[in-house]
């Protein structure tokens, strides 16, 4: 008999089915990162533990250090103080893949967009810039911080897709997934009812607005 555990969906697979929007609603905490941080190429997806770091404006030394320190399977969450420059490009992408890093979320800029997209490496950034960076300082590597308005510590769950980026505290991950799957099941029933002629006013208990409109 086959072990049923072998068929249990992974955390990443469960997150992919639910998506960032459903998980945000299910989390019940302020976990949504600044919406201007967007996917670099359509369809990019991340669901992995965070490894936070801080770069000085126009300086990417902390990223190079993080590539040696971050556990395999991590996503780098990089605060640059919203400074747009080319902190990350094709060279760092290749280095990250070799180090087992599964994605990048940065509130600064990146470059070599076509090469990154061709490699299908998930990157979520505030902008794109051809300007290079220096390597002179590393304010923080692996320490808790505020990123895009949301607290993040090593091991928190980052989920990022075309809808945006959320960061779920590690202690809340199990409950968020359970609540998200319950929400998705409820919405599946609702969509079936909508396809059969029900209205959103009826299903959401908003009938009283019909008379007021």
TrEMBL record:
CDD domains per UniProt: RraA_family
InterPro entries linked to this entry: RraA/RraA-like, RraA/RraA-like_sf
Methyltransferase as UniProt keyword: yes
Matches recorded under Gene3D superfamilies: Ribonuclease E inhibitor RraA/RraA-like
GO-annotated biological processes: methylation
Alphabetical UniProt keywords: Methyltransferase, Transferase
Coiled-coil region(s): none
Signal peptide: none
KW Cell membrane (keyword) present: no
Molecular function GO labels: methyltransferase activity
Name the record gives this protein: Dimethylmenaquinone methyltransferase
Species the sequence originates in: Vogesella indigofera
Lineage, opening ranks: Bacteria, Pseudomonadati, Pseudomonadota, Betaproteobacteria, Neisseriales
């Amino acid at each position: 008999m086959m072990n049923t555990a072998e068929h249990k969906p992974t955390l990443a697979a469960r997150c992919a089915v639910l998506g960032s929007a459903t998980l945000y609603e299910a989390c019940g905490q302020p976990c949504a990162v600044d919406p201007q941080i967007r996917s670099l190429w359509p369809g990019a997806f991340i669901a992995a533990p965070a490894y936070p770091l801080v770069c000085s404006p126009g300086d990417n030394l902390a990223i190079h250090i993080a590539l040696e320190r971050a556990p395999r399977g991590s996503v780098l969450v990089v605060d640059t103080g919203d400074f747009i420059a080319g902190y990350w490009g094709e060279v760092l992408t290749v280095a990250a893949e070799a180090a087992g890093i599964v994605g990048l979320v940065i509130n600064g800029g990146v470059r070599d967009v076509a090469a990154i997209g061709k490699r299908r490496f998930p990157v979520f950034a505030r902008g794109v810039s051809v300007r290079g960076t220096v390597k002179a300082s590393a304010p923080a590597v692996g320490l808790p911080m505020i990123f895009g308005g949301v607290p993040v510590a090593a091991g928190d769950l980052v989920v990022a897709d075309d809808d945006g980026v959320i960061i779920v505290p590690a202690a809340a991950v199990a409950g968020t997934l359970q609540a998200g799957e319950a929400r998705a099941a409820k919405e599946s029933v609702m969509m079936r009812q909508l396809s059969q002629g029900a209205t959103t006013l009826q299903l959401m208990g908003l009938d009283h607005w019909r008379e007021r409109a």
